[in-house]
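Honest question from a wet-lab person: if I give you the sequences of every part of a complex, can you actually get the arrangement of the whole thing, not just the pieces? Trying it with mine:
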Amino acid sequence: MKAIKKAKRPPAPAYGPQPWLQQHWDARAALNFMAGGAGSGLVVAAAVAAAPPWLAALGALAVAAGLLAVWAEIGRPLRALNVLRHARRSWMTREALAAIVLLAAVAAWVSTGQPSMPHAAFAALAAVAFIVCQARILNAAKGIPAWREPLLAPLILATALAEGAGAALLLLAPTAAHAAAAPAAAATPSVVLGWGLVFATLLRGLLGYGWHARLKVPRAQRKTFARTGMLFNLLSGLAVCFALVALASPLPAGLAAPALGAAGALALAGGAWFKFALITRLAFNQGFAISCLPVRGVPHVSPGGPHASPHASAHASPHPASHPLPQASPSVSVSPSITRHAAPR
Amino acid sequence: MTRWAMVADLRRCVGCQTCTAACKHANATPPGVQWRRVLDMEFGSYPDVQRAFVPVGCQHCDEPPCRDVCPTQATKKRADGIVTIDYDACIGCAYCAVACPYQARYKTERATFAYGRASAHEAKRHDEARLAVATKCTFCVERIDAGTAQGLVPGIDPEATPACVNACIADALAFGDLDDAHSNVSRLLAENRHFRMHEELGTGPGFHYLWGGAEVAA
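Yes, you can. This is the full assembly:
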């Protein structure tokens, strides 16, 4: 018998009580959060570690690339400037404004050609503002439980800082002069960045744990969350291990820099994976839910005998408390007993 | 003041989807876009199963998340509670669509028609302005505005009432002014037990579901 090969198709959204993955933002939107977070983190890292300003320039380029990606996703790209019209309430408008300030600040810093403290500090502040805006964009999306969880905002911030430190270490690793002059114990930019990476990666791990714990992930989504978390934790854990080996062991300078570079790459990959998954794999809505079942008609008797069925007795009961469904954070806790729902016609 | 709101009686709705069809007819929405839809839910397991038909759509919230997140101010809330979209200002970022807890918003990237090519009536009613931007239920705001301008009462006079309410065969949908204590919807809410969907999110939906009568409340 000829085997029927099933075509791989994305699961169709089922409009009903069961949550489904949001279909509106795809990898292009994810790229904005990945590149924007890593880029602005890189600006912060360059400022904190008094690294050369070209690192910040690369960070600003990453931010711009992320915005370009999301521009490619919007339906009416020629109206893109309308995005600036709602600073009073919309975090997306604020993100765009913060990006403008960030790009200008980095340009001013790079134009000095050296680690200028006031310029670097202002650019770092603008970068932090940009990350906060990105985090609050997700928080404000009430339709997605994983995004609206308040702990996501500090998690995004910590992730961006870890990514920034990681990107800086990765970019500095091949610099021959840097490698030669980077004994592990010296207070070079790499050492500052290395410890920054360790701290931020551990912090994001803790926040990630708390975020996940508070989500109360429905049973049907647990596997997806678990797989995403496993890879994220693996990459983060390896990043911390590599960084600690490079920083705390008597490695020769020629080995310490590549080890830190590897730690940076792993931290960067972990953050990118988390944000990609957050937008494209973990963004389940909460479906629909009703908190009370309709009370219709008259009490009916079960076909098998004179005893009313549980539902029938609920119909007849004078106690309204027996009618409401278990209160919900919505459909998830309401829906386990739901057996079927219809897709829209 | 006026606060337009919708009331759906879950005891009356039979899931016929006439409101869905009426909405599509009135608003010429493309295939796959249902500003008003009716969910068919079953609860329990055999033999104790209960079924509920639940009309859903834009809830015209008191604090609409879609308005707050919209970066262009294309989404606005009128003084009478109706949430509107300015298609000429919307950039189609779909932020409102992911922010809406009621999955009420749609974005259609390209023109689609029921049978591939546009039929004569589809071509006539096709609106380019609604492509690649967010769309949703408007509570048939044009009918309401035109009707009230003529002194008609939305929810009472069909010419001023949303198409879905007019079409409902079971009288399950009602529309009216919540701020008027004597309106049809105020009376229904006073006489019946009701809830709003996902109320814990603080959006203040303008869509109320009746589930039990006064005798249950007593």
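Two things worth pointing out. Chain A touches chain B through 64 residues (CB under 8 Å). Chain A has twelve helices and no strands.
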